[in-house]
Structure formats: C-alpha cells, structure tokens
C-alpha cells in the first residue's frame, strides 16, 4: 500500500529523510534543496543550533539559532550556499555558538563570552571615543528607533572631560570622580542623577554594539531623588489665572485697535482687527492645553495638528518627543476641545503652537507665563506645575494611580506615588478595609447575649 507524504511526517522529497525535522546537513543534502515558493528550514542532527534555510526564491542560507540568557530566541546568518560549503558552515556555526551567550550557560560563562566578544570587536574595529559614538552610531541608533536624540546631546554637554576617552576606558570610579566634582559646584543631586541616567543609556547601546561588555554607570549610586513639591492651583488661583488670561486677550485687542487707528490716520494699510477672534495669540491655548493634558513643555512645543484627533477626542504624543520613549494617547477634555477648535483656524498650519515668522515650533513661553502669574498674583508656580495640577485633579477625583501614570507618560508607578496623598480618604479606606470592616462583620456573626440566655 502506498503511503502519501501527508501520512509520513518524516518523509523528505528528493530522497532525504528527517528524524523529528532534523537532517544531516551535508553536501549531498544541500544538492537536494530546491525552492517551493515557501520558507524551508532544517536543523542539523549533530550540531544543535546549526540550521539551513531556503527562501521562497531559492537562496540557501546557513544560520545558527539559539536561546539567549533571558530566554529569547536569537538567529544569526553565517553564510550562503554554494559560496560556503557544508563543512565550512558547520565550523563557523560551532565557533559562533562557542562565543554566543546561551540560556544553558552559567552566569560566569555568559560574562566570559561577553568579555571575549567585546575584546574581539575592539581588536577588529577599535573602540570609539564617547564623542565619536554619540555623534555617530548612538545618534543613528536613536533616530532609527524613533527615539529623541536629546540623550546624546545631554551626554555631550554634561561630560566634557570624558568625550575624547575611548568608551571602554569609562569606569565606575571615573564616574564617581565626576559626580563628586560636579556636586561641589552646587549642581543638585537630582540633576546629577539625570545626567548619570543619560550616560548609562548611551553605554547600554555601546554594549549592544560590542564596544564594552558591562555598563560601568550601573555601579554608580545616583544619590538623587526628585525634590518635587506637588504644587497645584487652588480654586481661587485657578479663577485668577483664567481671569488674567482673558484680561490679556482684551489688552491685545485694545492694542490692535490703537494700531489700526494709527495706521489709518497715516493712510497706511491697517492690520486685521482682533475683536471677533476668540484668541489673539498662542498663550491662552498653550496654558489651557497644559492644564488639561499634563503634557511636558517639550511635548507641547512639538505638538502638531496631525497629532490631534478631533473625531475621537484624543491627542497622540509621539514616541520621538516623549521623555520615556513611549507613545501615549491623552483624551481631550470638553474645555480643551472648545479651545483647540477655536484656535486651529488662527494657528500655524503644521504646529499647534508654531512661530509664523520662522515656520517652526515655538521654543519659549517664559516671558508671557511670568506676566500671567504676576497679573494673577500667583507665586511659586512653575509652568511644569501645570503637569502636577493635572495629576492632582485626577487623583482627587478618584482616578487610580496606574491610570494617572499612563496619562502622564511615566514608565514607573513609583513616580506618581507623590500624588497618592491627594486621593479622597485613601488612608481611611485602607484602614476600614483591613481593620474596621472585618471587625463589624465578626460582630454581626456573633450570637447576642439574649439569644444565648
């Protein structure tokens, strides 16, 4: 009785047989391979991880497949047939697996393989300086992955004495010395911590590139915790701020009318009137957007009309402009929807807050912001505090901290714990759940003295 291919799982056309999808990758076997319009892959029975792959077009590739120490699968191409023969490919695969950290390796073996690989790369191509890497491969890596290049700029600006050192000469002790010197100049611990975080990110990519096998910045204590005072607007301050913004709009309209009258008197072409427009410039829409989204200053400057989805009432904060390298969506409040709808016809065509003179996004609002605070008689309230105000309103309304974290674009829940004390009765609720409620339930279950009598 004839047996079909479908009935025999180990059947291989062209005369080759497989045992559990494994073959002996040899010259004879390679000669049997042919394109069939699909990807084909066969594992070598003798060398675990050594495979041959046939593309739909018929290209025969030698590869190694393995599991990394973190459990993820890895693959590397080592050559193509017939330019590389089976015997050569097998030796290349054996050498590659001997130098690649694998899941089955002990931690000591993994570290030794990383060290040998890093030394091999340095011998082959040399080790770039911090400056060369930041301006070259690191910046290219960030751009290719749609990550802001601000981290590369921060490293270049913060570590001038290390820029011309090869990356593999950066040590924990060298960074400790930098930290000590900078601290003596009065730089705040949080700023030092941010700069150490920046160079750690750069060195992490240098590890991927094979220039170093360990990250020296990981061993340097940060010492800097955010010295954050959660400053938010009181109801009275909020009312005064909005009144100051409206008064500013009226002052701008009056100033424009005086300009129109002056131009007409001189028989010159007057500018258009501002009497019938909702906003005379970007300042009020900028502040309203900040208070209703909690967006960072840089995110507001980079915001484009293409990021504003009026239909679904959502703002898309692009990955390239976020601090934590994560895209997020922020729902648009009713107040903000009215504001942006009125502002769009008056605004820059590309940027929500663009400079019509330079055709680029705005880069500074400090002067107008300080004027508003002075007019509203509000003190000790930075523009960044609009972000705290947004978070505080969410928490006070009972929104859980994890959703607040997502809206603010924080990667770590610990960052938003600073707002926990604002949750309504959050400590009383915890005590009631843990102590009071069980006690009341136990009293209800206990028989009364009258019933016992």
Automatic annotation (TrEMBL):
Domain of life the protein comes from: Bacteria
UniProt keywords (A-Z) are: DNA integration, DNA recombination, DNA-binding
Gene3D superfamilies given in the database record: 1.10.150.130, Integrase, DNA-binding domain, Intergrase catalytic core
Q: What is this protein called?
A: DUF4102 domain-containing protein
State the family named in the UniProt similarity comment for this chain: Belongs to the 'phage' integrase family.
GO biological process entries: DNA integration; DNA recombination
Pfam families attached here? Answer: Arm-DNA-bind_3, Phage_integrase
Q: Which residues form the Tyr recombinase domain?
A: 228-432
The GO molecular function terms of this record are:
DNA binding
């Amino acid at each position: 009785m004839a047996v079909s291919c479908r009935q025999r799982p180990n059947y291989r056309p062209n005369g080759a047989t497989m045992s559990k999808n494994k073959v002996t990758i040899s010259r004879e076997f390679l000669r049997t391979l042919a394109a069939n319009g699909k990807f084909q892959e066969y594992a070598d029975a003798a060398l675990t991880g050594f495979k041959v792959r046939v593309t739909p077009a018929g290209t025969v590739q030698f590869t190694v497949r393995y599991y990394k120490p973190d459990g993820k699968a890895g693959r590397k191409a080592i050559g193509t047939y017939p330019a590389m023969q089976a015997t050569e490919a097998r030796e290349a695969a054996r050498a590659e697996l001997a130098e690649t950290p694998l899941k089955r390796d002990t931690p000591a073996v993994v570290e030794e393989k990383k060290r040998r690989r890093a030394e091999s790369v340095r011998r082959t191509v040399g080790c770039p300086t911090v400056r060369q890497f930041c301006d070259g491969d690191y910046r290219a890596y960030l751009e290719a992955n749609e990550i802001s290049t601000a981290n590369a700029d921060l490293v270049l600006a913060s570590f001038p004495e290390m820029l011309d050192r090869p990356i593999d000469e950066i040590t924990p002790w060298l960074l400790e010395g930098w930290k000590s010197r900078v601290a003596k100049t009065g730089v705040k611990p949080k700023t030092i911590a941010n700069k150490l975080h920046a160079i750690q990110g750069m060195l992490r990519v240098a590890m991927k590139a094979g220039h170093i096998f360990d990250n020296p910045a990981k061993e340097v204590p940060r010492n800097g915790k955010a010295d954050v005072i959660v400053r938010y607007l009181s109801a009275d301050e909020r009312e005064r701020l909005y009144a100051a913004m409206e008064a500013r709009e009226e002052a701008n309209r009056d100033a424009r009318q005086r300009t129109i009258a002056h131009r007409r008197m001189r028989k010159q072409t007057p500018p258009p009137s501002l009497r019938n427009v909702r906003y005379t410039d970007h300042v009020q829409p900028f502040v309203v957007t900040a208070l209703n989204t909690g967006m960072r200053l840089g995110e507001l400057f980079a915001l484009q009309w293409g990021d504003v989805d009026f239909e679904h009432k959502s703002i898309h904060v692009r990955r390239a402009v976020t601090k934590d390298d994560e895209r997020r969506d922020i729902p648009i409040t009713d107040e903000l929807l009215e504001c942006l709808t009125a502002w769009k016809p008056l605004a820059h065509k590309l940027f929500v807050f663009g400079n019509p003179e330079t055709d680029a996004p705005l880069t500074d609002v400090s002067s107008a912001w300080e004027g508003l605070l002075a007019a509203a008689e509000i003190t000790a309230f930075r523009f960044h505090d609009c972000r705290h105000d947004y978070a505080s309103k969410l928490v006070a309304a009972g929104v859980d901290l994890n959703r607040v974290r997502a809206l603010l674009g924080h990667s770590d829940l610990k960052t938003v714990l600073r707002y926990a004390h604002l949750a309504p009765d959050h400590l009383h609720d915890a005590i009631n759940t843990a102590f009071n409620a069980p006690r009341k339930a136990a009293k209800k279950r206990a028989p009364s003295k009258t019933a016992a009598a």
